[in-house]
Amino acid sequence: MYKPTTDEIKKLRETTFAPMIQCKEALVTTEGDFKKAITWLNEKGLIKAASKSERITGAGVIDAYIHNGAQVGVLLDLRCETDFVAKNEEFKKLSHDLCLQIASMNPLWVSQEDVPSEVVSEKKVIWEKELREQEKSENMFEKIIQGKLDGFYKENCLLSQIYFRDEEGKLTIKNLIGQTIAKTGENVKVANFTRFSI
């Protein structure tokens, strides 16, 4: 498997403004072909999404979902730039699917940045203790703990989770939102959500 250098990833990011992790994925997928990597990112809608990420989202919807049996409920605050897009079927479908995602996958935070630093620190202490008990080599600690942290984010952060409808298990919620941004031409972001359960 092709392993892009940090400089290659940075160059692609500077050209496209797409997130670093997607730049790396694009280069791995296209085996380092810079032009193909840009095309790949364009097809994913990530370049458009990144270029709109700073635009103000003053419109949107408050969506709600109650699961069969009324044991699980979700309130979602999904934002966009204009009322026109807020009433768009593509936006409404995204909102509904995000409610279903939250109900079924139970994320605790919107993004990695929302995870309190003390939670991350506590997890690292626990994992380090486990590795010492397993007598793992200390020079492997950082790599193993980073892998565990990535897994923790994928499980507990909405944007890092795999979209529940994606049969291939590759499409993250962040990229799903990026596709909607590309289709609507507006910035779209999850402002907040609450999941209730009995």
Automatic annotation (TrEMBL):
Associates with the EF-Tu.GDP complex and induces the exchange of GDP to GTP. It remains bound to the aminoacyl-tRNA.EF-Tu.GTP complex up to the GTP hydrolysis stage on the ribosome. InterPro entries: EF-Ts_dimer_sf, Transl_elong_EFTs/EF1B, Transl_elong_EFTs/EF1B_dimer, UBA-like_sf. Pfam families: EF_TS. One of its GO terms (cellular component) is cytoplasm. The keyword Nuclease does not apply. It is found in: Cytoplasm. This is Elongation factor Ts. It comes from the Bacteria. Residues 82-85 are annotated as: Involved in Mg(2+) ion dislocation from EF-Tu. Belongs to the EF-Ts family. Keywords: Cytoplasm, Elongation factor, Protein biosynthesis. Its main location: cytoplasm. The gene is tsf. Residues 28-197 form the Translation elongation factor EFTs/EF1B dimerisation domain. One of its GO terms (molecular function) is translation elongation factor activity.
